[in-house]
Amino acid sequence: MAMTTEGNSAQRPTSSRFTIEAKSPFMLQVRAWWPPVLWSIVLLIIVAIIMLAGGPVLQKTLTDALIKLLVVVGLYVFIGNSGILSFGHIGFMMIGAYGAAWMTCCPRTKKLFIPGLPEYLQTHQFPFLVSVVVSGLLAAVVALISGSVLMRLSGIAASIGTFAFLMVMYSFYLRWDPWTRGASTMTGLPVETNSWVMLPFIVVVMFGAFLYARSRYGLSAKASRDDEVASKAAGVNVVGQRLLSFVISAFIVGMAGALFGHFLGILTVDSFGLPLTFITLSMLVVGGMQSLSGAVLGSIVISALFEALRQLEVGFNVGESVIALPGGGREVGIGILMLIILIFRRNGLTANQEIYWPFRGDAAAKTAMSRKS
Amino acid sequence: MLKRKTDSRAAQGHRDDGLTLQAVDVTVRFGGLTAVDTVNETLHRGEILGVIGPNGAGKTTFVNALTGFQEPTSGQVKLGQKVISGLSPHWIRRHGVSRSFQAGRLFRDLPVSENVEVAGVSMGLSRRRAHRHAMELIEWIGLKEKARQPAGVLPYTDERRVGIARALAMQPAFVLLDEPAAGMSDLECDDIMRLVKEIPERFGCGVLLIEHNMRVIMGVCERIHVLDSGKTLSRGTPAEVQKDPAVIQAYLGHG
Predict the structure, then answer these.
(1) Which 3 state secondary structure label does DSSP give A372?
(2) B94 and A222 in contact by Cβ < 8 A?
(3) What average pLDDT does the structure give for chain B?
(4) According to the CATH classification, is domain A35-370 in 1.20.120?
(5) Cβ of B107 and A352 within 8 Å?
(6) Per-position b or e across A126-155, b if 16+ CB within 10 A of its CB
(7) How close B247 gets to chain A, by Cα (Å)?
(8) CATH of the domain at B186
(9) Tell me: the pLDDT tens digits for A317-365?
(10) Residues 7 through 26 of chain B touching chain A, CB cutoff 8 Å
(11) Is residue B134 part of a domain?
(12) For residue range B141-165, what is the model confidence (pLDDT) as tens digits?
């Protein structure tokens, strides 16, 4: 259970010599919900520091990282609980992003560029929050339909199925000119997303994901993850439970897609392909697939490394000469670091565990902590 | 059919509702191989039925057919009057026919308590109530101290006990135990025997017990069904079966 967090966020002692007895009902709740509480605080601090002290480029980088973090938490809800690796979730992100474009671009732009939209969407413009939530729902509906077929598969077949789903959605959106402008860039989404906007979405989603993982539905899904046959013998409707986690995670990833659209203001289909699929998956794997803490920590670590390597690629001056990583060194570096992490911590940085209340001392704390995600 | 056990101590009010689990001419073929060949059997609540036979006799396939993991090629499985063959395993489990597995098959990354809890929540209990129910069963199998350990680190014998507890969660009408004592020492076998013997009275279930260990079978079963190459070879009380020349030839061989 003991583990390291980002340097700038370690406000707690790592040993349990220091104990806080939780007596009030409020503190008991804080302790029961510690993983999302902890990560909310950590992210709040990171966002506050960079938004108040960082430059505009760094602020943009942070928002981009937070969008990926939201995607990774969405991935965790499905992959961590059902045990099926999904290569298809970036498809849901794309569905969410284009959904946001359909709802929020100004009617004049829509008429000009995406004439295929139905009359109602064509002439109306919806507020940001509605756009994000409805785009998430749209992705969830697509997940419900595609998942009712895909979730009947198991193991690697299911993973390949989700990959096929991504390919289908990608090709479809690339050629669906009247709705998506095909290979051209979709422009005109209102730019609303920044790191402060991302924060509440992430916090709510983290609490939701944690609640799901601890619920009876999460437990049933995890049972099917550990042993599909035995879970059926324990009465678990495996297809149904997988489908539920698939739909919830698609909702989250769809929202992340909409937020991404409102971040850049422009969309192209090819930003939702394999590179984004693999970077988000590697964040989850590095952190630890089976815990919320793993999803969040993995995103933070990989994003921070990526940014650091990018700085190195730009180079820095030593006297007269510029020392820089060769182009593409970033990807190579991330690959090597991931290998190192996975060799030494096969189950990710968090070893698939949640990070629980560290100030334990009484019996109640132990009960709260015994619930492994 | 075999006479109904009348002195069953499990006749505790509503529990003994005369429900039966019935195999009617159950046949399972895999390609050219007939694993189970027109087997008939009726399991009543409150009794312990032993199913024995040499390796490859079709015992596990028979259990698979009874619990929905294998659809019979022909024949039917009936729970009371309802034909359940062809229905999904989780439906059958929720309606009272439960099983354990030869290999244990625990949820390795989940704590022992949650292994048992899964059955409760999948049948509609809240986590809190499922947990309480699971803890009662875990206390019964004597693993209260290990309830919070991940199931993957348990020793072999404990694993089997958790498998039995999981199968008994939510009071199924029938529980089918697939070699719960396989590979255990005599002492450990005695422990498992004690648990299995308690099941009818404590939970009101009918028990079908597959076992290789003749000591266990003869010690706990009231009736025995002997399978050989998928066919019924002999049925009766332990004493009758032990005397049956066909059984001695096929199974006890050297005996």
Answers:
(1) coil
(2) no
(3) 88
(4) no
(5) no
(6) eebeebbebbbbbbbebbeebbeebbebbe
(7) 32
(8) 3.40.50.300
(9) 777 777 777 777 788 888 888 889 889 988 899 988 888 877 765 444 4
(10) none
(11) no
(12) 999 999 999 999 999 889 999 999 9
